[in-house]
């Protein structure tokens, strides 16, 4: 309004108002919306739609900005998600940006190989690859970042971008035969990564994993399987109502060394912070137990320890988020000689 009515030269009757970096088709859509209250989003090309979103943001048309963002969230695919995320980052559209990140997390390998990934701004790129839930292999991430860096000549950008690679997650062979020949990382940086990997516990490494909020991932639908325990099929069937001593429960014997237990292998490395399990509750017995997680079945971290408490029935357990492949495995070290049972 200051431009048109504030005494500037554009406010003169015969003056032309120049709209920089504005696509005519997008501005035509905006005018149509201003005069009719309607805009056909589904028929617009993607690049026009993103320009249209930019105009709505520039001119403070919040309802239009929200509606366009909501529409874009429904049409995300591997070919456009990086471009949409760049725009969402530019205009600080948190809901749209979160939707893009969630999509990229679930399709990380395909996103890394897309042309759109190479067009990401540095800020948007680092936001994506620094996420623990960006669940691609570190080798794939490294190679994609190499392609991105080769398109740019700024050495400062290269150093900052390549620092996002979690080198200790790569094997020694990958570091020597893939990372070293690239010439994008200094020998000292590479040696530091090798030293860290050789001296660290496996579960202390900064793993990446799939994040599926508010959903039970210890199910056959997500590729989970019970690898240790008796009556394995009962644990993941989802039926928490129909069970007795003969069926409907998984169980394991109580052993003196406390190593017997029920073990679940997830379909893929995943980020978890909550376990809900049902201890046998059809009589008055109580149980003590602990829960451990692992990535490789060799190095285990105890995330819940109720070995000194008497517990029964439903257990809702929360702990610091962890990436694991071997799902929380309850080990009952009970206070009775009988065989304990549990169900997720």
Quick overview:
The longest helix has 13 residues, at 24-36. The chain is flat and about 90 Å long. With 344 residues, it is of the alpha+beta class.
Description:
This protein is of the alpha+beta class. The chain has two domains: about 1-205, Potassium Channel Kv1.1, Chain A (2-Layer Sandwich), CATH 3.30.710.10; about 220-344, Galactose-binding domain-like (Jelly Rolls, Sandwich), CATH 2.60.120. Helix content is about 35%, strand content about 20%. The protein has 13 helices and seven strands. It has helices at about 1-5, 25-35, 45-60, 60-75, 80-90, 95-105, 110, 115-120, 120-130, 140-150, 155-160, 170-180, 185-200; strands spanning about 225-230, 250, 265-280, 285-295, 300-310, 315-330, 340-344. Strands 1, 2, 3, 4, 5, 6 and 7 form a seven-stranded antiparallel β-sheet that branches. A hairpin with a 5-residue loop joins strand 4 (about 285-295) and strand 5. Helix 3 packs antiparallel against helix 4 (about 60-75) and helix 10 runs parallel beside helix 12. The protein is flat, with a radius of gyration of 27 Å.
């Amino acid at each position: 309004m200051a431009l048109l009515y504030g005494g500037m030269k554009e406010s003169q009757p015969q003056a032309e108002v120049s709209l920089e970096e504005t696509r005519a088709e997008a501005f035509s859509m905006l005018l149509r919306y201003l005069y009719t209250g309607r805009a056909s989003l589904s028929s617009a090309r993607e690049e026009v739609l993103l320009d249209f979103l930019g105009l709505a943001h520039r001119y403070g048309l919040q309802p239009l900005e929200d509606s366009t963002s909501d529409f874009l969230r429904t049409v995300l695919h591997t070919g456009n998600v990086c471009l949409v995320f760049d725009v969402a980052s530019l205009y600080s559209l948190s809901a749209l940006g979160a939707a893009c990140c969630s999509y990229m997390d679930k399709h990380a390998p395909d996103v890394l190989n897309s042309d759109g990934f190479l067009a990401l701004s540095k800020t948007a790129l680092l936001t994506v690859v620094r996420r623990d839930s960006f669940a691609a292999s570190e080798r794939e991430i490294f190679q994609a970042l190499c392609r991105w860096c080769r398109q740019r000549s700024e050495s400062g950008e290269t150093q900052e971008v390549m620092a996002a690679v979690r080198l200790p997650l790569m094997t020694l062979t990958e570091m020597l035969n893939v990372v070293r020949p690239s010439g994008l990382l200094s020998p000292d940086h590479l040696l530091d990564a090798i030293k860290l990997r050789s001296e660290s516990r496996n579960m202390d490494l900064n793993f990446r994993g799939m994040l599926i909020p508010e959903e039970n991932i210890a199910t056959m639908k997500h590729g989970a399987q019970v690898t240790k325990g008796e009556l394995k099929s009962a644990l993941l069937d989802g039926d928490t109502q129909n069970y007795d001593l003969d069926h409907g429960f998984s169980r394991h014997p109580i052993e003196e060394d406390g190593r017997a237990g029920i073990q679940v292998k997830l379909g893929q490395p995943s980020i978890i912070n909550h376990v809900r399990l049902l201890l046998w509750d059809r009589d008055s017995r109580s149980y003590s137990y602990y829960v451990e997680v692992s990535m490789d079945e060799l190095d285990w971290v105890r995330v819940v320890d109720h070995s000194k408490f008497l517990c029964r029935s439903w257990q809702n357990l929360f702990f610091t988020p962890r990436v694991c492949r071997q799902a929380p495995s309850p080990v009952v070290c009970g206070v009775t000689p009988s065989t304990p049972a549990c169900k997720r």
